[in-house]
Every structure is written in C-alpha cells, then in structure tokens.
C-alpha cells in the first residue's frame, strides 16, 4: 500500500462530464482502498493556471493525466497505482 496519499484534483466547471469523472474517481478510490484526497476545482481562473482548455481534467500529484473526457475505472486505477 502507498505510504503517501495521492493528491487528486478534478478541474471542471461542474458540468455533467465533470460530475461523471468525479464519480468514477471516487468509486475507484473507495473500491480499492486508495489513500487519496480529492479536490474539485471549479474556478475558471484556477483551471486556466493548469493550461487546460478542455474539461473535465484529472490531475494526479500535480500532473495532468486526462483532459476533455471521462476515463474508465480501469484507466483511473492504472494512473493511481
């Protein structure tokens, strides 16, 4: 098991895609007992600091891993491991 907690940020203005991504990420974390904190960033100015033009975007430990689409659970799990 990871000693360090993962830092997960979901960038998005709260649209349905952003909510879907949040749901997928939360499911993966709880189903796999992953130690992680999830932060939703909905402020457009804050999102722009990441230079992301397409939301939702998934940021894991300050690295943009996915943008503009909803990932599968398997994809999220692979990114978190």
UniProtKB/TrEMBL annotation:
InterPro entries: Thioredoxin-like_fold, Thioredoxin-like_sf, THIRX-like_proc. The keyword GTP-binding does not apply. The active site is at 15 (nucleophile), 18 (nucleophile). Disulfide bonds join 15-18. Residues 7-80 form the Thioredoxin-like fold domain. The keyword Transcription regulation does not apply. Gene3D superfamilies: Glutaredoxin (3.40.30.10). Keywords: Disulfide bond, Redox-active center. NCBIfam families: redox_disulf_2. This is Thioredoxin family protein. The lineage of its organism: Bacteria, Pseudomonadati, Bacteroidota, Flavobacteriia, Flavobacteriales.
């Amino acid at each position: 098991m990871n000693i360090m907690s993962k830092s997960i940020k979901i960038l998005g203005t709260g649209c349905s895609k952003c909510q879907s991504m949040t749901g997928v990420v939360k499911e993966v974390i709880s189903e796999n007992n992953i130690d992680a904190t999830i932060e939703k960033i909905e402020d457009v100015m804050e999102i722009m600091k990441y230079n992301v033009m397409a939301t939702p975007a998934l940021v894991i430990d300050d690295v943009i891993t996915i943008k503009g689409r909803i990932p599968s659970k398997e994809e999220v799990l692979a990114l978190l491991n």
